[in-house]
Design brief:
Elements (H helix, E strand, L loop, with lengths): L1 H11 L7 H5 L2 H5 L1 H13 L2 H17 L4 H12 L2 H17 L5 H13 L5 H13 L2 H9 L4 H6 L6 E9 L8 E7 L1 H10 L3
Antiparallel strand pairs: 1-2
Helix pairs in contact: 4-5, 4-7, 5-8, 7-9, 8-9
């Protein structure tokens, strides 16, 4: 049993394309010391869950690195002048990435983070979007971006907070009865999500 577990852990290391130095030298890791600490622990402990977390962080970094240098420098300046901001955002990144159930979600998170850095969305909206991504199924998010008015997708995303049952309903009379037709619409959070991902 121990040998099986050892083999699984060793094989899980293969999912990482980054080595420790690549993580530590990343601008995002330099910006948030608490994230760097978690990375070092992950490489030290080498458990399966640590490797999976590092893989999610790796995906986030890859997409974060697509920000231009001006945006990165702007964020670094803000961090250097506000320790509370640094700790709050760093802790939020760790908590959200750790909760994600698949390896596609960090890409969505990175793009929301980019919008936050550009001051296109507030910190609170960034956190709400992270929670919505966590509650979603990645293929559903992809379909939502592609067909934001698709009724089936809108229904699927109700639990995420990106969509909701409309406050308006249509009542029709049929054979003495009055069935009510309910509609599902995008929430304000859903509209913010689409603004980030549709023709960014």
């Amino acid at each position: 049993m121990k040998n099986i577990k050892k083999n699984i852990i060793e094989n899980s290391q293969d999912i990482l394309e980054f080595g420790l130095d690549q993580f530590i030298n990343s601008e995002i890791i330099k910006a948030f010391p608490i994230v760097g600490t978690v990375v070092k622990i992950g490489f030290s402990v080498k458990s399966i869950s640590d490797r999976i977390f590092l893989k999610k962080l790796e995906g986030f970094i890859v997409h974060y690195n697509r920000l231009d240098s001006i945006e990165i420098n702007e964020m670094l300046y803000q961090i250097k002048t506000d320790d509370n901001f640094t700790n709050k955002v760093g802790e939020s990144l760790i908590l959200l990435l750790d909760r994600f159930s698949d390896l596609d979600k960090p890409e969505y998170m990175a793009k929301c983070f980019a919008a936050f850095i550009r001051k296109e969305i507030s910190y609170d909206d960034f956190i709400r979007l992270g929670a919505a991504i966590d509650l979603s199924h990645s293929p559903d998010l992809k379909l939502f971006i592609k067909n934001p008015e698709d009724e089936k997708i809108l229904n699927t995303l109700i639990r995420t907070g990106l969509t909701k049952i409309s406050d308006y309903a249509i009542a029709t009379t049929l054979n003495g009865s009055s069935p009510v037709t309910l509609f599902v619409t995008q929430t304000e959070l859903g509209k913010i999500f689409l603004k980030i991902f549709v023709n960014p």
